[in-house]
Amino acid sequence: STPVAIFCALLKAARTGLVVKGGDILEALAKTKIVAFDKTGTITKGEFTVVELWTLSNDVNTNTLLFWISSIESKSSHPMASALVNHARLNSIEPKPELVNDFQIYPGEGVSGDINGKKIYIGNKRIAMRAGCMEAGPVGEEIKEVVTVGYVLMGTLLVGFFTLSDTCRTGAKECIEELKSMGIKSALLTGDSVAAAMQAQKQLGDAIEEIHAELLPEDKVSRLSDLKTRVGPTTMVGDGMNDAPALAKADVGISMGVSGSAVAMETSHITLMSNDIRKIPKAIRLARSTQSKII
Ligand code: ADP
Ligand code: MG
Fold it and tell me: Which of 30, 57, 60, 90 is the most exposed place for a label (fewest CB within 10 A)?
């Protein structure tokens, strides 16, 4: 009867929109003590709106800034990229990705490219440091109410910055509260700033136990290892290419199937075929009841 119980559970999971890559995964899921959530695209919708855009240089007006940003970001699949491209179009600026040479992605940091003979970097504080600019930090700290701050650098020079807002997914708070009621802790792991992480925490309420911000993909892995030793069996939920190593490290990795990256889906053990993260506590309940039927 054991394989039958597992088969039924997998079928039931599939009907609720969870693709589970094997019966042993349910066994691991049933043991979960903590769920680590990525922020952008997992807890939040990953549908950004550009709030503001400033130029910090007399030589670069906002139209030029938007042209550079949108042309380079046209080559990126990050959730922030499409918002920036849309924002340019709304301001009647047509991106020209064909003018961008040497496009590069720095996971957890941002992107860069050469355009009209200039090296442009777009991203967070880390990318500013990578470009050799040390003054990007304080600018970000002054903007307290803002969700995500992006910097634009021309070579080592900080030439502009922008702010983006994102919203938590419907049911994110309920998901974390339900996990808590089941005796399971929750943590937030993000590559975004401390301010952005705290903003999300405010919307999620007290049920979230820990937040860790400004993490590179490899930092997510070390945080995950730490959770495993401190708390116990850990499930990780994420959508991005930056989450893939952590998804692989987790006892159970869950990817977002609708808007997530292909690499996250390949690395995970379970794919959520809807954006409803409330399916996660439901899946753990199902896994637990399957275990009790087997034992
Ligand atoms: P999260 O862990 O919250 O999903 P990411 O690791 O994808 O976030 O990104 C971390 C940070 O890196 C973003 O908040 C952003 O500041 C910066 N970033 C990443 N990709 C880009 C991009 N294409 N353009 C601008 N900034 C980016
Ligand atoms: Mg993400």
Answer: 90
